[in-house]
Design brief:
Main location: membrane
InterPro entries: ND/Mrp_TM, NU5C-like
Shape: globular
Membrane topology: Multi-pass membrane protein
Number of strands: 2
GO molecular function: NADH dehydrogenase (ubiquinone) activity; NADH dehydrogenase activity
GO biological process, one term: electron transport coupled proton transport
């Protein structure tokens, strides 16, 4: 415990140093690159590159401050766990791998941190060893492996050009390069159709969800696209525009029909990832990075508040059993509601400065009316599920009377207060320091007040939603399965591959599930293999038959 406190103090000091360095690099318009030659192979030079500019240092500072607060938070949240030391080692390894992805522009060094992110996130998801965690971990790692394959294909493709440094690459007209970059980013940031792993990863402990699945891991794909935006051509931007608007709309709709507290916040994260990808596809990558930083701060705060609610109510995650929690945990509810207002883009909170600027600049663009409708519907759904969450936790009747609320949570509250202060005032500070180039925004009065009209309409809709009949069997089934994504990821029990991979069938009862012809064929093969007259042809037949048996199994 003493070691973790020392690590936390050092991380906070490094966070301050990175932030000051980021300001200095921004003021002087400087960037530094360090190159270490590891070895040469013919005309290929394997170099380890470190690229330091204001963007990488700002992201490192954000990762450090969030990680340090979550480690303090975890000391109390995970205090009764037997494998607490193992948990902290995984968190530290995750932070190191995240820094590797941020500071290196070479695709060969990115793959090291990228693979470590996927592997450690899988180990953190299956930390609670039960069936749900194992299934969620499998969905997580399979989805992330697709992105890893895309990175490996990019490595093999860049070998043709003699360099793995993506900062100096200008292959923006190459379709394969664009496609691989987009797939790797979409898998990490959980864009459609790879969206299922993010809500499934909520089986992990709440500190993991706060660090990994809200502010760092899911933003790694967004950061990759922001860093290498010069490689994306116009056609790929159009694909990203459709995918991101579709993802944001789907996630906002899903969040309004869920009752699991962590999954609602997970779909909120997914909706904001779609908003960032939408902004990148409009070529405003600076604004996307601004929203990435502010979102990381208030969303990690939101997850930590939900962790206190879950921890204090005997691990209950159903929001229908909450209500009137301001009587029991006023400080937590104040921070929780302020983070929710940041998510809505309430004026003069940190989410307002990034989100309002994104909305206004998109109103200036000449976009497809369908895309803009989905964009504004996603924002309206964000306000709606935020009001719904605040109602069930703050305004609803107390349904938690039989449970004993455990309230002695000093370390958790300290970390929450620090993150709340940063998430409240950081947006205004960043606007003055870094993102002052977007001051001239020419929109009319109606467009300017349109976000406020959205908030008023959603409040009125929320107050009258109980009188509206929105329940339809097919409609509900479609929404709850994330627009049928569950059926893509889950095999049927009668599926051939399911039978072949299932432990129970393959080890104990697999013969019962084979038909009579397959069983007689297997008997003939076994008879040939056990025959005493073994010639070369029969030996060859033996190996062929073993191969066929494994294909059948």
């Amino acid at each position: 415990m003493f070691l973790m406190m020392n690590i936390t103090i050092y991380m906070m000091i490094y966070s301050l140093m990175f932030f000051i360095l980021s300001m200095l690099l921004m003021m002087n318009n400087l960037s530094l690159m360090f190159q270490y030659n590891l070895f040469n192979f013919n005309s290929m030079y394997l170099n380890y590159l470190i690229y330091i500019d204001w963007m990488s240092m700002m992201f490192c500072s954000t990762v450090m401050i969030i990680s340090s607060m979550i480690i303090i938070y975890s000391m109390e949240y995970m205090s009764n766990e037997l494998k607490m030391k193992y948990f902290f080692y995984l968190i530290i390894m995750f932070i190191i791998s995240m820094i590797l992805v941020i500071i290196s522009p070479s695709i060969m060094s990115i793959i090291l941190g990228w693979d470590m992110l996927g592997l450690i996130s899988y180990l953190l998801v299956i930390y609670y060893q039960n069936k749900q965690s194992f299934n969620s971990g499998m969905i997580t790692i399979i989805s992330n492996r697709i992105g890893d394959i895309s990175i490996i294909m990019m490595i093999s493709y860049l070998t043709i050009y003699g360099s793995w440094n993506m900062m100096i690459s200008n292959n923006y007209n190459n379709i394969l390069m664009n496609l691989m970059l987009m797939i790797s980013a979409c898998t990490k940031s959980a864009q459609f159709p790879f969206s299922l792993w993010l809500p499934a990863a909520m089986a992990a402990p709440t500190p993991v969800s706060s660090l990994v699945h809200s502010s760092t891991l899911v933003t790694a794909g967004i950061y990759l696209i922001i860093r290498y935006n010069h490689l994306i051509n116009y056609n790929m931007n159009m694909y990203m525009l459709f995918i991101s608007s579709f993802t944001s709309f789907m996630a906002g709709l899903m969040a309004n029909y869920k009752f699991d507290l962590k999954k609602i916040i997970a779909f909120s994260t997914l909706s904001q990832m779609g908003l960032m990808m939408f902004t990148i596809s409009m070529k405003f990558w600076n604004l996307a990075f601004f929203h990435l930083i502010t979102h990381a701060l208030f969303k990690s705060t939101l997850f930590m508040c939900s962790g206190i609610m879950i921890h204090s109510s005997n691990n209950n995650q159903d929001i229908r059993l909450y209500g009137n929690l301001s009587k029991f945990m006023p400080l937590t509810l104040i921070i929780f509601n302020s983070s929710n207002l940041c998510l809505c883009g309430f004026p003069f909170l940190s989410g307002f400065y990034s989100k309002d600027m994104i909305i206004e600049i998109n109103q200036m663009m000449n976009n497809n009316i369908l895309i803009m409708m989905m964009f504004f519907m996603s924002i309206m759904l964000t306000i709606l599920y935020t009001l719904r969450l605040m109602y069930f936790t703050f305004m609803n009747n107390n349904n938690l009377n039989p449970l004993n609320l455990y309230m002695n949570l000093k370390k958790m509250n300290y970390s929450l207060i620090i993150l709340m202060l940063t998430s409240t005032f950081f947006g205004s500070m960043l606007t003055w320091m870094f993102f002052f180039n977007y001051k001239l925004i020419l929109i009319n009065y109606t467009q300017k007040i349109f976000p406020l009209i959205n908030i008023i309409i959603m409040i009125m809709l929320f107050m009258n939603i109980k009188y509206m009949n929105l329940i339809n069997n097919f409609f509900m089934k479609n929404i709850q399965s994330m627009w049928m994504l569950h059926y893509i990821y889950n095999f049927n029990k009668n599926n051939f591959f399911y039978i072949s991979m299932n432990y129970e069938y393959s080890e104990n009862f697999w013969i019962k599930n084979l038909n009579k012809k397959s069983y007689s064929f297997m008997q003939k093969i076994l008879f040939m293999m056990t025959s005493k007259k073994m010639t070369f042809k029969s030996l060859l037949m033996k190996y062929i038959s073993i191969t066929i048996m494994f294909m059948i199994i």
